[in-house]
Design goal:
This protein is an alpha/beta fold. It has three domains: 123 residues, Rossmann fold (3-Layer(aba) Sandwich), CATH 3.40.50; 229 residues, pyruvate-formate lyase- activating enzyme (Alpha-Beta Horseshoe); 64 residues, OB fold (Dihydrolipoamide Acetyltransferase, E2P) (Beta Barrel). It has 13 helices and 18 strands. The strands form five sheets. The protein has a five-stranded parallel sheet, sandwiched between helices. Strands 14-15-16-18-17 form a five-stranded mixed β-barrel. The longest helix is centred in the last third of the chain and has 24 residues. The protein is globular.
């Protein structure tokens, strides 16, 4: 039995897809090399914004073609968009055999068994997750599910539910499994990493988790993605600053800088507090790279409010800014507001913000020319005599890359000298020397639990 998985949206969905694949793998399913040979196709959808919904629907329609043009016997649509819009999708997409939201994904195997597509006998448990990407040395580790924040524009709490932290011991154990599978960089992901542990009420928090990951694994790079700045505490900053295996990179969304817009968004911070926190982050963690996200065209965003946002970005000078236009999401508080910014104006504002940040990022990158840094090699081009890598300031898939002037093994670390900036976001560098462990701790990892015990995990529930 061959299974093909199409993953859309964020890195948290990537983790979910790997778990779906592992569940099916336990019943004899193998990952297909292409969709046309897959007997089961699972489309893991995203419903965060309108563009993501459109992409998810396109992916489902495209996958449905393989029911006649390929080997597909069962088409499954699963994930966030299904959680929110199951009824209308069932009416519009009769070619889909099974719709599952995030809250009922445990029905995946039983439903396929009932349809006679999947065997009922467990053949061999493949572990908590089965890798399905193209960079096996870069892995994502989800530490919690859901969100308690009440941002007016966001439907994630409606799709993913309230925030639930996974037990620290289970997170560490999964990190150990990822290390055994060859992970050289592990990216911690959640709707809000900084919120980790609060609901456990046992003293667990993100700083303690990081400390445990450093002590109990030898993973060279640990990166954090998606931290609300309100939860970035002094103890957390001390852990990041004091441990070289935790890369100096913070991904903290601000969404806007106008106090009026922030209030309408139901965000907890204001211009002054954001500036103060960014300054504190930079003081506590020298050489830190800070990435953020912004929304343009939110209801009530006047020309003055948008100009304020641009001025703020010029002053604060983030290393990276991801930006998108506002689109109303059914069930959110913002959907009740009058969307008074025309689409054409939203797109114009997005273009202006993007071009401003492109210049800022290029200037900040140029300040690093002449420096030496450690790079993690992602791919090698033997024919071209080069390698594609990333420095600690570059997260996988969302930031720029670093081009090295020689061939190095993927998954290895190399000390490089930065020689130039290419296309504003990328670096060009010369290899100085290979590094066995990026100059990091040699502390051995504690042996992970046997894979046979993996079926008892509580992740994703």
């Amino acid at each position: 039995m061959k299974v093909g998985v199409v993953t859309l949206g964020c890195d948290k969905n990537t983790v979910d897809s790997e778990r779906y694949l592992a569940r099916l793998g336990a019943y004899g399913a193998e990952q297909a090399d292409s969709l046309d040979e897959a007997e089961i196709i699972v489309v893991n959808t995203c419903g965060f914004i309108d563009a993501a919904k459109a992409e998810s629907i396109d992916a489902i329609v495209n996958a449905a073609r393989y029911k006649t043009a390929g080997s597909c016997r069962a088409l499954v649509a699963i994930g966030c968009m299904i959680e929110r819009h199951r009824a209308e999708l069932e009416a519009e997409l009769p070619e889909v055999d099974l719709f599952l939201g995030t809250s009922d994904s445990d029905r995946l195997v039983p439903e396929l068994e009932a349809r006679g597509v999947l065997g009922a006998e467990v053949l061999a448990h493949p572990g908590v997750r089965q890798y399905m990407g193209d960079l096996p040395h870069v892995r994502y580790l989800k530490v919690s599910e859901g969100c308690d924040h009440g941002c007016a524009f966001c439907a994630i709490p409606l799709m993913r539910g309230r925030h639930r932290s996974f037990p620290l011991t289970e997170v560490v154990r999964e990190a150990q499994l990822l290390e055994l599978a060859g992970a050289r960089e592990v990216n911690l992901v959640a709707q809000d990493l900084a919120h980790y542990g609060r609901d456990l009420r046992d003293g667990t928090n993100l700083a303690r988790l990081l400390d445990a990951l450093v002590r109990e694994t030898s993973i060279p790079w640990i990166r954090m993605l998606y931290l609300y700045s309100a939860g970035i505490t002094s103890p957390l900053l001390e852990v990041i600053a004091g441990e070289p295996r935790i890369v100096r990179y913070l991904d903290t969304p601000i969404q806007h800088a106008s106090d009026v817009v922030l209030a309408r968004m139901r965000r907890p911070e204001r211009d002054r507090t954001i500036r103060e926190k960014v300054a504190r982050f930079r003081e506590a963690i020298p050489d830190v790279a800070i990435r953020t996200t912004c929304i343009v065209g939110f209801p009530g965003e006047t020309d003055a409010a948008f100009e304020h946002l641009l001025s703020f970005l010029e002053d604060v000078r983030f290393d990276r800014v991801g930006a998108f236009t506002y689109s109303a999401q059914e069930g959110t508080r913002a959907a009740e507001l009058v969307d008074d910014v025309p689409e054409a104006l939203k797109r114009e504002r997005l273009e202006r913000l993007t071009e401003l940040q492109r210049a800022i990022s290029a200037e900040k990158n140029e300040e690093r020319i002449g420096r030496r840094a450690v790079a993690l090699v992602d791919r090698a081009d033997a024919a071209g005599g080069t390698s594609r890598a990333r420095l600690q300031w570059q997260a996988d898939d969302v930031d720029g890359v670093t081009w090295i002037d020689s061939v190095r093994r993927p998954g290895s670390f190399v000390e490089v000298a930065i020689t130039e900036v290419r296309d504003d976001y990328d670096f060009v560098a010369t290899a100085v020397r290979d590094i066995e462990d990026a100059g990091l701790s040699q502390r051995p990892a504690r042996a992970a639990l046997p894979l046979a015990a993996a079926g008892s995990h509580s992740f994703g529930r």
